[in-house]
UniProtKB/TrEMBL annotation:
It comes from Aromia moschata. This is Uncharacterized protein. The keyword Membrane applies. The chain crosses the membrane at residues 115-148, 155-181, 201-234. SUPFAM superfamilies: Helical backbone' metal receptor. Keywords: Membrane, Transmembrane, Transmembrane helix. The lineage of its organism: Eukaryota, Metazoa, Ecdysozoa, Arthropoda, Hexapoda. It comes from the Eukaryota.
Length: 243
């Protein structure tokens, strides 16, 4: 290959290895020439701008083995024989090794793709399993909360029934005591007044007991309403989360 004179460039296309030789051009000019003239016509996977020196051949070999397309940049101090040596080496080694390396590289790349897909699938499966476990745990917690609420309601109702029974027993005992007291004191001169007084006491006690029972019933109703509201809120939250 003939290296062209100053301010010109030569493109060599050796079966997918693209070499730009720019003699006596600044690095910026070289990039400009490359971008405006050469790059639009090729699908480069990498752009390597290289100053040719003693290590160029080994560097070229490494790049070529990685399946990269190469740009060489020379200046006026680059020995012509070194440039020609590089070109000869590339032309020679291309026929011997490049096809095999390229095939191997592609096969290796394909394997990488398979591994990445498998890893992604595993990650997705793990995430799905975690989400299912979390949903199951949430459902179990909600069921436990509902059971606890039901147990609390039952306990409250039992306690209230016991309180009402105790109050009724107390009323009966008071009525019996007052009746007995009245019966024993019926010889008293103030019999009528006394009887009236006792009747007043009984009425007051009954009114107080009725008020207490009404208050207890109201409290029970309020508690049940609050619990129902809480359950409804929990169900709505679950439904919203599932959506």
């Amino acid at each position: 290959m003939i290296i062209t004179t100053q301010y010109k460039y030569e493109r060599l296309d050796i079966n997918n290895i693209n070499i730009v030789i720019a003699n006596s051009l600044s690095i910026m000019t070289c990039i400009t020439v490359y971008k405006s003239i050469i790059q639009p016509h090729f699908d480069y996977c990498a752009t390597i701008l290289y100053m040719l020196d003693k290590n160029s051949i080994s560097a070229l070999q490494k790049l070529q083995n990685r399946g990269m397309r190469i740009i060489l940049r020379c200046n006026k101090y680059t020995p012509l024989n070194l440039i020609l040596e590089c070109l000869q080496w590339m032309n020679h080694h291309h026929h011997n090794h490049h096809h095999h390396n390229h095939h191997h590289h592609n096969h290796h790349h394909h394997n990488h793709h398979h591994i990445i897909i498998i890893i992604i699938i595993i990650i997705i499966i793990i995430i799905i399993i975690i989400i299912i476990i979390i949903i199951i745990i949430i459902i179990i917690i909600i069921i436990i909360i509902i059971i606890i609420i039901i147990i609390i309601i039952i306990i409250i109702i039992i306690i209230i029934i016991i309180i009402i029974i105790i109050i009724i027993i107390i009323i009966i005992i008071i009525i019996i005591i007052i009746h007995n007291h009245h019966h024993h004191n019926h010889h008293n001169h103030n019999h009528h007044n006394h009887n009236h007084h006792h009747h007043q006491i009984i009425i007051i006690i009954i009114i107080i007991i009725i008020i207490i029972i009404i208050i207890i019933i109201i409290i029970i109703i309020i508690i049940i309403i609050i619990i129902i509201i809480i359950i409804i809120i929990i169900i709505i939250m679950i439904y919203e989360n599932k959506r």
